[in-house]
Amino acid sequence: MKLSYRTIKHLILWTPTITIGLWEYLRHTVLLPYVSMDLGNLLAPVIVFIVTVTLLRKLFAKLEATQEELQRERMLKAALEEREQLARELHDGISQSLFLLSVKLDKLDRADCSEAAREVSAGIRETIRRVYDDVRQSIANLRTLPAPGDFSWMASVEALGGEAADAGIRFECEGRLPDRLLTNKEKVELLAIVREAVLNARKHANARTIRVTMEPSEGGGFRCEIADDGVGLGESDLKAFDRYGIRMMRSRAEEMGWRLGIRSAPGGGTTVTVEKDDRAARDDSPRTRLAFHERRKGGSRA
C-alpha cells in the first residue's frame, strides 16, 4: 500500500507520542509490580530510540521518495507547459510566416518574369517546404509527452525503429547500451542525435535501410553508429549552411565532449558515429563546458 505524503508526515509526528503514551499506560497498569519507576524512566528513551530506528527511518525514506516524486511531477508539468508555449509560438509565428511566403511565391510565379527568376523561385519554394516540414516536426515533438529522466534507452531506440518501419524503412539495431552506462543527460542528448540522424535518413536520403550499432567501450564510454543506404551527401553539402540537422548534432556532441564523425558520399549512404571514451568523459567537466561556451561567445563576437 502506497502512503500519501500527508499520511507519512502525520505518522512521523505522532509515532513518538503514541509510543511514549502506550509505554506509560502499560508500565502503570500492567508492569508496575515488575518494573520500578527508575527503570521505567530509563527504558522510555530506549524504547523511543528503537522505534525511531526501526519504524521512523523507513517512514523518512518513504517521505524523501515521495518528495522526489512530487518534485519530478512538478518539473514534468513545467516542462509540458513550456513545450506547449514553444509549440504555439512556432505555429503562430514561423509556421504562418512560411505559409505567407509560399503564397507570395505563387503570385510571383503567375507574374510575367524570366526563366531564371522562375528557377530561383522554385529553389526558394523547395527550401520553404523543407523548413516548413521541419517546423511541423518540431511542433509535433514539442507536443509529445517527454520521456522521464530514467526512461529506458533501448526502448527509446526501438521506438525510433517503429517510426521508421511505419514509413516503410527497414530498421536494424545491433548491440546494446545498458541504462546504467548513461546519465540522464547523456540519454537525452544521444537520443536526440540518433533521432536526427534517423529523421534525415527518412526525409532526405530516401534510405531503404537504417542500421544503428551500439557498443560499450573501456572506461565507461560507448560508440554509437547510425548508417543508412540513402543517396548520400557530397563534402560541400555536409558543410552547407542550411544543414540544420548536422549543425545540431555537432553542437550537441561538442557540448557533451563526444566525438562526432559523419561519412557520406553521393550514392554511398551516410554514416554518423558518436563516440565517448574515458578521455572524453574526463573532458566533460564543468570547466571544459564553460570553456566551450566562452569559445562560442568569442566566435559570435568575432
UniProtKB/TrEMBL annotation:
Listed under catalytic activity are: ATP + protein L-histidine = ADP + protein N-phospho-L-histidine
The record, for Pfam families, names: HATPase_c, HisKA_3
Gene Ontology cellular-component terms listed: membrane
Q: Which keywords does the record carry?
A: ATP-binding, Coiled coil, Kinase, Membrane, Nucleotide-binding, Phosphoprotein, Transferase, Transmembrane, Transmembrane helix, Two-component regulatory system
Which Gene3D superfamilies does this chain map to?
A: 1.20.5.1930, Histidine kinase-like ATPase, C-terminal domain
**Region Disordered: which residues?**
266-302
UniProt entry tagged with the keyword Membrane? yes
Q: What is this protein called?
A: histidine kinase
Taxonomic source organism: Thermobacillus composti (strain DSM 18247 / JCM 13945 / KWC4)
